[in-house]
Design brief:
Blueprint lengths: L1 H34 L5 H23 L2 H7 L2 H20 L4 H4 L1 H9 L2 H19 L8 H106 L4 H29 L9 H16 L3 E6 L7 H20 L6 E7 L3 E8 L25 H10 L3 E6 L5 E8 L4 H4 L1
Length: about 425
């Protein structure tokens, strides 16, 4: 847009310059006429009067709206030009120095005449121009006529070349303006699409968060039922058994055994409750960015299982939306858990790749592998079955973010897992 405005300003400056050029040429010619010897004082006065008349005609042309005049009376521009050419011819005949002013005929023909009238006006202007170049009104001789013909042809050729270049430049300028306008419209559409895409991303994240909240509630309900509730039920049972031992005169050892069992169940239930609470918000993300958080998980897994595991980060790490980071962290945790628990892997490699519009987590192990076609569909098994986050829950998380989860494996050939999600910036969470 700045280039287009600069081009418009250049064209406006050129138009202004062409508007003042006839006045400048007339002034220069009049000054030269006063300094060049003329036959008589009457001739000088006559020349100056003609110059004043030409000046008045130029002013009349300037104060009139030539576009409105041309629309109302198409012949008006031609009539005005004819009067100007007549004045130019008379001035050139009086003294050839008005050949400078003769060039104003080209300017007016190009600016105010259209089509064939423009070409005719340009051709007519070459007559006084060539006459001034050979010295004005001299005695007619065959040699002078030949020189005049050469000057006339020369002016026609030069003016024709200049006009052709001007028309080419004008067409290129028009095409450039059209291209700039089309580019501006394309940029506006692109900006609108980017804004709409950002809005859709924010909406998608919101929907994923709502769905995630529902899933977390269901998982917590199953977790509490399977662990905490059962532990509390066991505690109540042990306490009731201890009371019965006391009421029926049982031994202190039996009474103490039931109390110890109740205490053990209470400790286990407390541990399960703490684990369920920690699962709501991943602890590694509390104090680190995603690469460091996954690295912490990998280090803990390596120390726990005494197996080699390595994390590689490619691209420029940027802060992502919390839902995106949680999804990738959960995917890493689940993949590592499966590698140790089910695949019996001896080596695991993770790659976190930051690309322009997506982030990909690749996890590879050399474990036992399995048949991916035997996996249940995303809707076939609820997330968190048996208290954990399985591959189905992982796929559901990724799909809620408009991402993809690809699993390649075969029995005895290890497993490769790739989770790809949109690289939604953390600012989207604030928007």
């Amino acid at each position: 847009m700045s280039g287009e405005r600069q081009l418009d300003r250049s064209e406006q400056r050129l138009e202004t310059l062409l508007g003042y050029l006839p006045y400048f040429a007339l002034g220069v010619s009049a000054v030269l006429a006063c300094t060049v010897p003329i036959a008589t004082a009457r001739s000088l006065r006559s020349t100056l009067l003609l110059s004043a008349g030409a000046l008045g005609w130029l002013v009349l042309r300037s104060v009139m709206d030539h576009r409105a005049l041309d629309r109302g009376r198409p012949w008006a521009a031609g009539a005005h030009f004819a009067v100007q050419i007549a004045l130019i011819c008379q001035l050139v005949l009086s003294t050839p120095v008005f050949g400078f002013f003769a060039f104003s005929g080209y300017v007016h023909a190009i600016r105010y005449l259209k089509g064939r009238r423009r070409m005719a006006g340009i051709a007519v202007t070459t007559l006084p121009t060539a006459l001034s170049q050979i010295g004005g009104a001299l005695p007619v001789t065959p040699g002078l006529l030949g020189v005049y013909g050469v000057a006339l042809c020369f002016n026609l050729v030069v003016v024709g070349v200049v006009i052709t270049l001007g028309e080419v430049t004008e067409r290129l300028s028009a095409q450039r303006k059209q291209a700039n306008a089309a580019l501006s419209q394309a940029n506006e559409r692109l900006a609108a699409m980017l804004a709409e895409n950002a809005g859709l991303h924010a909406q998608l994240i919101g929907q994923a968060r709502e769905a995630g909240v529902t899933d977390e509630r269901q998982r917590m309900a199953r977790e509490i039922h399977d662990t905490v509730a059962q532990g509390l039920a066991g505690i109540v049972t042990q306490l009731q058994a201890a009371d019965q031992v006391r009421e029926h005169g049982g031994t202190d050892l039996a009474h103490r055994r039931h109390l110890d069992n109740a205490a053990r169940l209470a400790r286990e239930s407390l541990t399960d409750a703490r684990r369920a609470v920690r699962a709501l918000r991943p602890e590694p993300l509390e104090h680190a960015e995603l690469p460091a958080a996954i690295g912490e998980v990998v280090d803990s897994w390596r120390e726990l299982h005494n197996l080699p595991a390595q994390l590689t980060v490619t691209g420029t790490a940027v802060p992502l939306h919390p839902e995106v980071e949680v999804t990738l962290l959960r995917a890493a945790q689940e993949a590592l858990n499966n590698a140790a628990k089910h695949a019996a892997a001896t080596r695991v490699g993770l790659t976190l790749s930051y690309m322009e519009d997506v982030v990909t987590l690749d996890v590879r192990d050399d474990g036992a592998g399995f048949d991916p076609s035997a996996l249940p569909d995303a809707a076939g098994r609820p997330a968190g079955e048996n208290g954990g986050f399985g591959l189905t829950a992982m796929r559901q998380r990724v799909r809620r973010l408009a991402g993809t989860l690809e699993i390649e494996s075969e029995p005895g050939g290890g497993t490769a897992l790739s989770a790809t999600v949109p690289a939604v910036a953390r600012e989207a969470a604030r928007g």
